[in-house]
Write a structure and sequence with these properties.
With 138 residues, the protein is α+β, with helices and mostly antiparallel strands. It has helices at residues 3-31, 69-95, 105-109, 115-118, 128-137, and strands spanning 34-38, 44-49, 53-59. The protein has a three-stranded antiparallel beta sheet. Strand 2 and strand 3 (53-59) form a beta hairpin. It starts with a helix and ends with a helix.
């Protein structure tokens, strides 16, 4: 192989390794995302992990006992939604710097993006150097 091609391949491998390392760090940070919400009158708190869903429900005092079963259920579900929303917001802030232009990180973490947004019909998103090489060969 020519010396220029060796350098190109080494650069390509270095870019790949750098992206892989950044992705591993991003994954680690996303696994740590967790948020807690408290009901308006402080009857309960809910902790929600972005990676694992509800991880804890705490009854903070005995006030929940005065609620009818359907009221308690509604209160728990509303507090779960609030904790989930907080965790999604935190996750979106973490991935925002890595999301391609035109994609909303909030939509990404909430699963609201369709196939075309994630895999454009005009082909994959490639590093500039790879796209240039492909265009030269055309």
């Amino acid at each position: 192989m020519a010396a220029g091609q060796d350098g190109f391949l080494e650069d390509l491998l270095a870019q790949y390794q750098q992206q892989r390392s950044a992705l591993a760090e991003l994954h680690r940070r996303m696994q740590e995302v967790s948020a807690t919400a408290m009901s308006p009158r402080r009857e309960i708190s809910v902790t929600y992990s972005h990676a694992g869903g509800v991880t804890e429900i705490k009854f903070l005092n005995s006030a929940y006992r005065r609620l009818a079963p359907n009221e308690l259920s509604d209160l728990i579900m509303a507090t779960v939604r609030e904790a989930k929303d907080k965790a999604a917001t935190e996750a979106a802030e973490i991935i925002a710097p890595t999301v391609p232009n035109g994609l909303n990180p909030q939509d990404l973490v909430r699963g609201k993006l369709g196939t075309d947004a994630l895999m454009p019909p005009d082909g994959p998103r490639l590093p500039r150097i790879v796209r240039e090489q492909l265009e030269r060969r055309s």
